[in-house]
Design goal:
50% of the residues lie in helices and 12% in strands. The protein is an alpha/beta fold. The longest helix has 22 residues.
Length: 382
């Protein structure tokens, strides 16, 4: 008998111009807000003043934090959380990509609980946090609907997870207008991050009928719209943005797998953008994981991608990655042959991801996949 629990409490407001509804959407959350942005994007395109104005027009006191770094470190999350605590804010608004939203989620915990966000990493589960309103500016994060915040421990070069229903954003404003400002490479990489979320949700041992439906729809939308989205077509941008949210809803139930664990290393050790890191490794992990899922599910994935069987899926994905200019091997992003053993050792730290994988991840499998990815050869690693 199939048994699962699916929980998705976020109020999702989607569509061009939906950002204009920010004030009325948050009016019930309180009268004091901290708004969190990245370094340059929001101010360059006028969003800092716009969001401040939307909130202040309803009498909400607004405090601004600009400068969230990519892959936010513990120290910055603590800084933002302490600001929120000192300002006695009622809620946090996060306008940005996954780094900004994750930093806001972590800060929301520190603001309520005190201490450092390092005190709340897995295996702990957080149960208290300020409300977060997430406004994603990329088509890849999915963080606007998930119970995860991924924070970087810079001294250990590890990505660590804060997890709990308390940090699921109360409201997600998914406005495709913001995607018009994304550089072409970032559009590609973040869309492929959403693709990675969807395919990992389908292969995770925690997948269920709801997450599968969400993930399959996300895959179809990304495949059908990524080319026109890169060109700036409005309908395609809309479809990519909702695909990212759907994939986020999927991984909120299933978690991510070995693919994310391997990708984290490229980000922390070689400064490779997260979506690009996952894209490079995707064929090599899927060459193993797709063979472990049911025939029915495999056929559903193949149908969405317009092909048949494992080999057809891998060929379709590799063709897509080649067309988008994704490097075929780890060597192209600076990984040296002599570091592959260390790479494998670091990946073992990501038990949360490895335990979701449909194939047991042992030393031989890890080293085999890394060897294939290093050589750029899609052969069976085990």
């Amino acid at each position: 008998m199939i048994r699962f629990t699916y929980y998705a409490p976020t109020r999702i407001v989607f569509g061009f111009g939906s950002l204009d509804n920010l004030g009325e959407l948050v009016s019930s959350l309180g009268s004091r807000s901290l708004v969190v942005f990245s370094r340059r994007f929001a101010r360059r395109y006028g969003y800092v003043d716009r969001i401040r104005g939307l909130l202040e027009s309803l009498g909400i006191k607004v405090f601004i934090y600009e400068g969230v770094r990519p892959n936010p470190p513990i120290s910055q999350c603590d800084e933002i959380g302490n600001l929120a605590r000192n300002y006695n804010v009622d809620f946090i608004v996060a306008f940005g990509g996954g780094s900004v939203i994750d930093a806001a989620k972590a800060a929301a915990v520190v603001a309520v609980k005190g201490g450092s966000i390092a005190d709340y990493f897995l295996p702990k589960t957080v149960n208290e946090a300020l409300p977060v309103v997430a406004i994603p500016t990329t088509c890849g994060t999915g963080s606007e609907v998930t119970r995860y915040a991924i924070i970087t421990n810079e001294s250990r070069k590890l990505k660590l997870a804060v997890v709990g229903d308390a940090i699921i954003p109360k409201i997600a404003i998914v406005d495709p207008t913001v995607l018009k400002h994304l550089p072409r490479d970032m559009m590609k990489w973040t869309a492929l991050d959403a693709f990675s979320h969807a395919i990992e949700a389908l292969t995770s041992i925690k997948s269920n009928v709801i997450s599968d439906s969400l993930a399959l729809t996300a895959l179809r939308l990304i495949m059908d719209n990524i080319d026109d989205g890169i060109k700036g077509n409005d309908e395609a941008l809309s479809n990519l943005h909702i695909a990212s949210t759907l994939a986020g809803l999927a991984i909120n139930a299933t978690g991510t797998t070995l693919l994310h664990a391997l990708g984290y290393y490229l980000t922390t050790h070689h400064d490779v953008q997260h979506g690009l890191a996952n894209a490079i490794l995707m064929p090599y992990v899927l060459n193993v994981n797709l063979r472990a899922i049911s025939r029915k599910k495999l056929d559903e994935v193949a149908k969405v991608l317009g092909t048949e069987g494992v080999e057809g899926i891998l060929s379709t994905i590799r063709t897509l990655l080649l067309k988008l200019g994704i490097p075929k091997s780890l060597r192209h992003v600076g990984v040296k042959e002599g570091e592959l053993n260390d790479y494998a050792n670091v990946v073992r730290n990501y038990r949360r991801n490895l335990e979701n994988n449909p194939v047991k991840v042992d030393e031989d499998l890890l080293k085999g996949i890394l060897r294939c990815a290093y050589e750029g050869i899609l052969s069976r690693p085990i």
